[in-house]
Amino acid sequence: MPSEIETVALSEADVAAIRADFPILAERVNGHRLVYLDSAATAQKPEAVLDAEREFLIRRHAAVHRGAHTLAAEATEEFEDARAAVADFIGARADETVWTTNATAAINLIAYSLSNASSSAEFGRLALGPGDEIVTTEREHHANLIPWQQLAQRTGATLRHLPVDDDGALLLDELDGVVGERTRVLAFAHVSNVTGTLAPVSELVARARAVGALVVLDACQAVPQLPFDVRALDVDFAVFSGHKLYGPGGIGVLYGRRELLEAMPPFLTGGSMITTVTMERAEFLPPPQRFEAGTQPVSQVVGLAAAVRYLRGIGMDRVAGHGRGLGERMASGLAEIPGVRVIGNGERVGLVAFDLRGVHAHDVGQFLDDRGIAVRVGHHCAQPLHRRLGLTASVRASAAVHTTDCEVDAFLAAVADAAEFFERMR
Amino acid sequence: MTPSSDFATLYQELILDHAGAGEGRGETTGFQPQSHQVNPTCGDEITLGVRLIGDRIDEVRWHGHGCAISQASASLLTGLVAGSSIAEARELLARFREVMRSRGTLELDEATFGDAVALNGVSRYVARVKCAMLAWVALEDALDHAPDA
Ligand SMILES: Cc1ncc(COP(=O)(O)O)c(C=O)c1O
């Protein structure tokens, strides 16, 4: 009987066709065909994205929402069409979809807007201050931790966190104790960039709703791997980076519920976000423009829309099935190698991190690199989680739509060989 | 599949042995001056202490965690600088840094560096130079804080 994964996964022929879309996969590294297992850091780009950007730059490039010449008007239309396409991809409305540089910038936008609200009469509804609490988790990427630390420092609010267990899973038993009447913001990752496992989003959102806290979802690792719908998830904000979604660098997305965005003061201010300006003051445009000060990265936006179209063409259910299958293959294969500790268990996407006992992650990574296999080594911008797990660093392999079972097997064989090579150190 | 020759040079036996044995690894209490260094990309860290007699390095002790390259480098440094003057240690340090940053174009000479020439392979791996440098940067910082520095 076919399993659920097989029914929605990609066939070998599908993946072969997808691979032909990614020029970089033909590269050789250290004498071997590149095996790219670092898509969680940044994804490779399909031809469709590269072409869309190039086409735009060659034929239609102009500044948007400024000027009235033909190119400017067309570029503006394309820019806004791209917004609609990306918004639709995540189940949002275009006027709830704000362009940012990346996820880090999006989270900082929220955090700085909230602190600006705290010193504003006009936007005081969202003010934070002493006695208020901001909650994040022990397994966040630094991008979803440090902006909240800083917001707490600026406003006098208290930062708390939901702890994790020995496997890096969120301790739901603690949820009601940590998230309470004082909680104003609950920020967490949908999919951990270290464990690759999913957070119990509905439980966390339900608790936040019960206490009236805003939910900020870090969707960086979720949007590239899962069908994603902000309405179904019922979150207030969601952020992700285009470069992890097979799109260009320098473009990210902040989704915010319309009435919240309307109630928020700007973070960055300047051109393109105003209506009337005098020497003393300015009126701000409504969202999303209110949060898009300065000349916008139009070709990147166009490229991101192409990435979203590309993924739609494959089907996010199949992307998810493929990722899940690869994640399972990596996790179960690693678990059989003596000395390997797989970090995290439970439902995972195509991402797994592990520790090889007695051998530093850098050394394992170097061994793999020697065979053209690119993985991430280090703390993956999640020092508190690593500390909690008793590690300073780990090795992370993350798959993409173009990853094959064969590549996963080559990776597993290389880890087994690395374990043997470094035997004497253990 | 056998490792490439560059890899085999990088992780030659001497490196693995030094990384495992770790000459000088131990408690640094009472060793002054001291320095604590962190490699921000991987979180590796070292605390390295020097015991000086006059302007001579009597003994180096260190502890921390890191990859084989950083551990081997700390171990090799320990043997190399023991008994040298601060000025001599600084010279070794300058040359070591120059070679590590040379992208494989310079080599440590055996007459001066002894077993530490095993680290020559590192300079081809730009991403690993910081690993090899960690203990040396700690030594440099410690010496900068020596009483008469
Ligand atoms: C879960 C998670 N959050 C946030 C980020 C930050 O993304 P960026 O560096 O693109 O802003 C990353 C990736 O680095 C991530 O994996």
Give an account of the 3D structure.
The complex is a heterodimer of chains A (426) and B (149). By secondary structure, chain A is of the alpha/beta class. Chain A is built from 15 helices and 17 strands. Chain A has helices spanning 4-8, 12-19, 47-59, 70-89, 103-118, 146-155, 175-178, 201-211, 230-233, 258-263, 298-314, 316-335, 361-369, 383-388, 405-421, and strands at 28-29, 32-33, 35-36, 97-100, 133-137, 158-162, 183-189, 214-218, 237-241, 252-256, 274-277, 282-284, 340-343, 351-356, 373-374, 376-378, 394-398. Chain A is globular. Chain B contains six helices and three strands; from the N terminus they run ααβββαααα. In chain B, a hairpin with a 4-residue loop joins β1 and β2 (44-53). In chain B, α2 (13-21) packs across α3 (68-81) and α3 packs across α6 (129-144). The longest helix of chain B is centred in the last third of the chain and has 16 residues, at 129-144. The chains are: A alpha/beta (426), B alpha+beta (149). The A-B interface holds A 30-31, 359-363, 366-367, 370-371, 377-379, 383, 386, 392-393, 417, 421-422, 424-425 and B 1, 3-4, 6-7, 10-11, 16-17, 19-20, 41-45, 65-69, 125, 128, 131. Pyridoxal-5'-phosphate binds next to α5 of chain A. Pyridoxal-5'-phosphate is lined by residues 102-104, 141, 143-144, 189, 193, 218, 220-221, 241, 381 of chain A.
Bound ligands, each once: pyridoxal-5'-phosphate
C-alpha geometry of chain A: globular
Largest sheet of chain A: 7 strands, mixed
Give the second-level CATH assignment, the architecture of chain B: Alpha-Beta Complex
Distance between the termini of chain B: 51 Å
Give the helix level of chain B as a range of percent: 40-55%
Percent of residues in helices of chain A comes to 25-40%
**Under the CATH scheme, which class of chain B?**
Alpha Beta
